[in-house]
Amino acid sequence: MNEVESKIAIVTGAIRGIGKATSSRFKREGITVIETDILPDQDRNDTYEESQSDFKNQFLVHDVTEEKSWKEVVGQVLNRFGKIDILVNNAGIGTLSDFEEEDEKGWETMLSVNSKSIWLGIKSVLPSMKEQKSGSIVNVSSIFGASGGFGKSASYHASKGAVSALTRNAAVRYAANNIRINTVSPGFIKVLREEKAIENAGDKMSREIIFRTPMGRWGNASEVASAIHFLAGPESSYITGAELFVDGGWMAA
Ligand SMILES: NC(=O)c1ccc[n+]([C@@H]2O[C@H](COP(=O)([O-])OP(=O)(O)OC[C@H]3O[C@@H](n4cnc5c(N)ncnc54)[C@H](O)[C@@H]3O)[C@@H](O)[C@H]2O)c1
To answer: Which of 20, 62, 141, 236 could be cross-linked to 185 through a Cys-Cys bond (beta carbons 3.0 to 4.6 Å apart)?
Structure first.
């Protein structure tokens, strides 16, 4: 498959966790992936990799909270590949702070990284997707955008609720342009950051997670990547504005 035949995807927050798993899954399926993250990938150069023979392995430093940074990333991808078929808005941050512990600065950062970024991402790829009359955008939200969780992490809940609402709004707006926009909302997924946060929160929370998850276990990043791949690709061609929970049954309980 050459560059022209291959689907071109941008995956944000892609150096680890769910983003990394998604990128790996896409690459296995023959999709060309531009991985972006605010952290430089230590295993690679922190700038565009120029190797023609390894074009499936691109990495760009990217701050998803800044429109300027989005313009740079989208501009570079369009220069190189001439199109963007898929955007996965995955980058995000979390907190386990109690409601009254949170401060204004933390709230604003959370909303900026988790919600504003989704709007900026969609806005940035729209011109090219509209022109090519196709596109698929998958936004990564959370079960905490749709449930009260543990009564903690207020800013996180608000930020993820916004992702789901924005997805539905944008899906309606751009359906006629043949641009599909969906959400994948994970439950508790084994990635280093999440495991550490839960470990710090103590045994009670770890036990409660297992107890409240009907399937009785954490999910794996690859299980979320499968759902993202499904919604990103042609198998979901009549699905837009949907929210797919990958949560071992948490939302059904
Ligand atoms: N792991 C879980 O249990 C879980 C559950 C529900 C939702 N999620 C969501 O899944 C997504 C991925 O999370 P993860 O668990 O893989 O976490 P992670 O911390 O392993 O990965 C998130 C990535 O986003 C990057 N990032 C943070 N701020 C950024 C910015 N301003 N610009 C660009 N990149 C930035 C980080 O550097 C990191 O590489 C997030 O949106 C998260 O809220 C995760």
So the answer is: 141
